[in-house]
Write a structure and sequence with these properties.
- There is one protein chain.
- By secondary structure, this protein is of the alpha/beta class.
- 38% of the residues lie in helices and 25% in strands.
- The protein has two domains: 240 residues, Aldolase class I (TIM Barrel, Alpha-Beta Barrel); 70 residues, no CATH class.
- The strands form four sheets. The chain has a nine-stranded mixed sheet, sandwiched between helices.
- It is globular, with a radius of gyration of 20 Å.
- Bound molecules: S-adenosylmethionine and iron/sulfur cluster.
- The site of S-adenosylmethionine has 16 residues, from strand 4, strand 6 and strand 7.
Length: 353
């Protein structure tokens, strides 16, 4: 039995490493793109042998910095996917991008080659904070890319980081006002996380307290004029990231490229896998259901209640805590606004085993 799979392609190269980032990528000005592309093509062929000519609802190029990739490599990867598989007619193809890696010509070429959704890492609308983060661009560079993307017929998203040392709720309200003025259809608002083995991890930074972070999170929900649809993601109706929504709902996806994680489904058996053949382990239905509850509950619309998730979810808890969780009209369990604020506790309490 073959089922549709979404595709995630990891591009593990960046111009330089930002001081907060623990994502799998390395600073490399001139990677061997032909070698990288040949590896991706070989992986795609491997998956065609395993899964057959499956249909592909979405493709997401994440990183790292996928916009560093020569368009020729991107074209080759997309051509391989469309040849080997049934790319759905409205397939969402997202490219993560950094300001200063795309000019008008390269963006045109990416769009002509299939990109129909661009995610821009803006991170901050303050040059001082961008420098603190170790970014290689200014606010003006980021806004220039937003302008270029607006001229194309594509969907647009931007990433921002909040909760930096000395950030106040007023700063975040101002950030939201500035984002509102940009008129984006989608943005991701990430709380700065201090990761081990990053420069920030070694700096003993004076971070906002948990309570201050919670106040900032509430302020974002109140002030941003784009509705929240997941813990860190905001979109106007129809502008949600379909790739991520599918994955958070528990749809299968293939991780391609070193560092690309996936969950594939072959003959009703789940496997957790990583690109470049790094990992391929069976995953039982119970373990997969727990993952689906965790990612599903992070969405405002909640997790789908089906035979697998029913075995995991403690309905006595759901029925007894309407202040935290509720059953939606379309067969899901979702967190209330209050439940979202203490989601980790809610998930721990509503799951068995
Ligand atoms: C995998 S990165 C790729 C995006 C792109 N390379 C860029 O930097 O613009 C995706 C997003 O994760 C967020 N991110 C990465 N590390 C983070 C951290 N330690 N705390 C909060 N957000 C983080 C950033 O907003 C970043 O845009
Ligand atoms: S935040 Fe983006 S550009 Fe910076 S190191 Fe991480 S992946 Fe690379």
């Amino acid at each position: 039995m073959t089922v549709p799979h979404n595709i995630y392609v990891h591009v593990p190269f960046c111009m330089s490493k930002c001081r907060y980032c623990a994502f799998f990528s390395r600073a490399c000005a001139n990677p061997d793109w032909d070698l990288y592309t040949a590896g991706i093509v070989a992986e795609l062929k491997y998956w065609e042998r395993q899964l057959g000519k499956i249909s592909i609802p979405t493709i997401f190029f994440g990183g790292g910095t996928p916009s560093l990739m020569p368009v020729q490599s991107f074209r080759k990867i997309i051509h391989t996917i469309t040849t080997l598989f049934n790319t759905e007619p409205d397939c969402e193809i997202t490219l993560e991008s950094n300001p200063r890696t795309l000019d008008a010509t390269k963006l045109d070429e990416f769009c002509a080659a299939g990109v129909n959704r661009l995610s821009i890492g803006i991170q901050s609308l303050s040059d001082e904070r961008l420098q603190f983060l170790g970014r290689q661009h200014s606010v003006a560079d980021a806004l220039h890319l937003v302008d270029l993307a607006r001229r194309k017929n594509i969907r647009l998203s931007a990433d921002f980081i909040y909760g930096m040392p000395n950030d106040t709720v007023d700063d975040i309200v101002k950030l939201c006002d500035d984002i509102n003025a940009l008129g984006l259809g989608h943005c991701s608002m990430y709380e700065l996380t201090i990761e081990e083995n990053t420069p920030f991890g070694k700096m003993n930074l004076n971070m906002p307290t948990n309570d201050e972070m919670a106040q900032m999170y509430i302020a974002i929900g109140d002030r941003l004029n784009i509705p929240r649809y997941e813990v860190s993601n905001y979109a106007t109706h129809g502008n949600e990231c379909r790739h991520n929504m599918n994955i958070w709902d528990g749809a299968p996806y293939i991780g391609i490229g070193r560092g690309g994680a996936g969950r594939v489904l072959i003959n009703n058996q789940w496997y957790e896998q990583m690109g470049n053949g790094e990992l391929f382990n069976p995953l039982d239905h119970g373990a997969r259901a727990i993952e689906r509850v965790i990612t599903g509950m992070r969405m405002v619309r909640g997790v789908i209640l089906d035979n697998d998730t029913k075995k995991i979810i403690n309905m006595d808890f759901v029925n007894s805590r309407p202040d935290l969780v509720y059953r939606t009209n379309d067969g899901r369990i979702a967190a209330t606004k209050h439940g979202m604020l203490i989601l980790d506790d809610v998930i721990a309490n509503m799951t068995r085993g």
